[in-house]
Amino acid sequence: MGIGSEEAIRQLRALMDHVEEQLKCTFQNVHQGYLTETLERFLKAREWNITKAHKMLVDCLNWRVDNEIDMMLTKPIVPVDVYRAIRDSQLIGLSGYSREGLPVFAIGVGLSTFDKASVNYYVQSHIQINEYRDRIVLPSASKKYGRPITTCVKVLDMTGLKLSALSQIKLLTIISTIDDLNYPEKTNTYFIVNVPYIFSSCWKVVKPLLQERTRKKIQVLSGSGRDELLKIMDYSSLPHFCKREGSGSNRHSSNGAENCYSLDHPFHQQLYNHIKQQAVQESSRPIKQGSVHVSLPESAAEGNDIVKTIELELHKYGNGNGNGNGNGLSNSLGSLKI
Fold first, then answer.
1. What is the pLDDT confidence band of residue 327, given thresholds at 50, 70 and 90?
2. Which of 24, 115, 183, 255 falls between 20 and 30 A from 69, CA-CA?
3. What's the number of CA atoms in the CB half-sphere (13 Å) around residue 144?
4. What is the pLDDT of residue 211?
5. Could you report the per-residue pLDDT of 29-68, keeping only the tens digit for each?
């Protein structure tokens, strides 16, 4: 971190000292004691422009207060069958940790369908995983490794990627924009594996639309990516779809403890039990069923450009080759912002 960076962080910190008390309280849940690293993330997201970073951070804190984000880990998705359906159609899980201590999140881009619940449920689930990552997983990793760990690694599995998922673009851009505005710079590296031809072709036109700092984080690996990923993590931390060449992803695994997407996986069991316990501690009233409604942002300009490009490319391939019946390239948009 250079002198200019240190000065920018100092100035932003001074500005944050003057925000109202309610925002300071939710800011505690954002930085978890790692104030410098948090200020640096927001500055990076606004190209080190202090004024813009300050506005972004204050807007984020107001969003958290207005939507009771600090309470999101006290609002379980019940009954459990609804949550299981979400886990079967919004494929994400924690497979382990890199050798540097960064959590490794696996995301089944190609096989996620987002068709088992309402948009509000999927947004609620996504924010809960974000909050659990930032308030439980990362602080625990920081304590274990004796240094600040405030980012993660993501492995995106493109198995099953097909042309016909334009209907999912709206949801994925909502999730993407929530992360852009409120959880910036949380991913250290994106590894993309099991890449089909359709992704390779569209990637050539989408890549230039991404900001440079995002492009630098993305590595498209050959096959399942196993050999490359073993350079930064142990075999036990590999996502299940990377453990052997040609294995691909699988939404329904016979062993839920190995399938990091499954509700039966230890990560999701711990997450779900944590939320239920917090709900009981917070209120003596019966747990309310139904999704949590969060104000949904307008798509960011970059996201809109990417969406338009993806739509054009998918239509181009669809007109030439016919549409598939599965999920689509549009899912990758949201995955690159989680």
1. very low
2. 115
3. 14
4. 81
5. 999 999 999 999 999 999 999 999 999 999 999 999 999 9
Domain ranges in the chain are 3-66, 73-276+299-335
Could you tell me how far CA 228 lies from the centroid of its own chain?
Answer: 22
CATH of domain 73-276+299-335: 3.40.525.10
On the question of a cis peptide bond just before residue 79, with omega within 30 degrees of 0, the verdict is: yes
Q: Which fold has domain 3-66?
A: Helicase, Ruva Protein; domain 3 (1.10.8)
- The span from the CA of 177 to the CA of 195, in Å, is 25
Buried b / exposed e along 110-135 (16+ C-beta atoms within 10 A) = bbbbbeebeeebbbbbbbbbbbbbbb
User: Can you list the positions of beta strands (E) in 151-236?
Assistant: 152-157, 161-162, 187-193, 218-220
Q: Which stretch of 4-8, 113-117, 180-184, 209-213 has the lowest confidence by average pLDDT? A: 209-213
Separation CA 243–CA 113 (nearest Å) = 23
